[in-house]
Amino acid sequence: MTYELPVDRLFIAGAWRQGRGAPINSHFPADGTLNRVVHGASIEDVDLAIERAQTAVSDPAWRSLRPHERARFLYKIADGIAQTAERIAYVQSRDTGKTITETTALALSAAGTFRYMGAALETLEDALTPSRGDYLTFSVYEALGVTAGITPWNSPIASDAQKVAPALAAGNAILLKPASWSPLVCLELARVIEASGLPAGLFSVLPGSGSLVGERLVTDRAIRKVSFTGGTEVGRGIARKAAEKLMPVSLELGGKSPTIVFADADLDVAVAGVLFGVFSSTGQSCIAGSRLFVQRAIYDTFVSKLVAATQALRIGHSFDRTTQVAPLIHPDHRSDVEAHVRRALAEGAELLTGGERPQGATYEGGVYYRPTILAGVDNAAAICREEIFGPVLVVLPFDDEGDVIAQGNDNEYGLACGIYTADFAKAWRVARGIEAGTVWINTYKQFSISTPFGGVKDSGVGREKGREGIRAWMAQKSIYFDLSGKPHPWAR
Ligand code: NAD
Question: Considering the entire predicted model, what is its pTM?
């Protein structure tokens, strides 16, 4: 199964145009071959997209659509994604190196996101608030106007959908800037959106560098909201610039999420959950369970089981359906991952497995790295504090609930947490004690569009998904409607 990759045209302001910005080389991480050279957006392209988006979003024909009418576009986009999921998955695997199994699931989840947001939109209610005078009071939600989504390379179609679907549902225009390492799959999303008949200008795709295209979107005064998913430092910079123009931002940032295995856990369930939590997506996941705490009584037994299971993982080509660990996105990213591991070893960490590139013909030219487990450091070590965004796990022992909650929270991030135990009450106490946006109990990395997602501390601000996810793209307006029919007494 192969498909034609998108050609060198960006979907800007309702038309396919050659970008006037710098060329972006997209490579296939499984073998290093060149996918496409895509000319990114220039500042002129961004300005054109903004101008057309302003016109489109204020067009009475769009503004006067009722929610159920606007929802029809979202359903059409959902159907378009689902009908071409195989093609979208192929392009995303070529773009990112992710396994075809995972990209297929991501494409279908993106379809689900549009469908859910369409359905949620149809059922959202404004409020008639309790009146405190001779008037009616309403609280209504309205579109913000022109908005932007800035996304990372690790799960583009899913993170794009999580921004574009609620933004359009809310009645906005949205300009999408994907990461430079994954410029292709968002063009597939544009193809589907164009086919849905969405009025031109409401959606544009602007690949290009963060410091140029991204920055313009953040600082342009016409943009009324930015939803950003990416690294914490970039997010912090965006928040600063947004503060200048008092623009709301949503920031989905990095993580160093603890996974906790208590002595009473089902060890097979825990081993499978830990492996999936940290090594699926080759660890390139914001929610990767990259800090593992194992209760001291089972530490040796559990760690040896885990190491054996890790060594049995199938590292392979993105299009091999048996592959569990695919290549990393880019050689530069692998170099970063390797540097983290080298530093940990220099600081005294013990290498339990991995720590090297796999050898053999299958791996030639590809950006492969073996799943790696480190131990023998305490929670203050750099390897326990910094996000690596690769297949690297650090294991630490703990004594009891209090100890593991303290260690788990002793980190700048607060994105997610996994807890494995047979004791429901203990799971509940730890879940409530941990500082994180999402906690999984006896499972990990399950996702539902109906359940809000986001982080605390350095992992971000704001929530995506869920019915409230649409409201995050709207402004609330209060309306007072006089019932007295009389002049105001003050003026008498
Ligand atoms: P990144 O922060 O380098 O880039 C993310 C996006 O921001 C890209 O499109 C990039 O071009 C753009 N960008 C860069 N500089 C910018 C600037 N100055 N102004 C505006 N935009 C700018 O992140 P990445 O390397 O693409 O992705 C990995 C990071 O994303 C990890 O830290 C990961 O944890 C995080 N992430 C978080 C979530 C979440 O939901 N919390 C999900 C996925 C990834």
Answer: 0.98
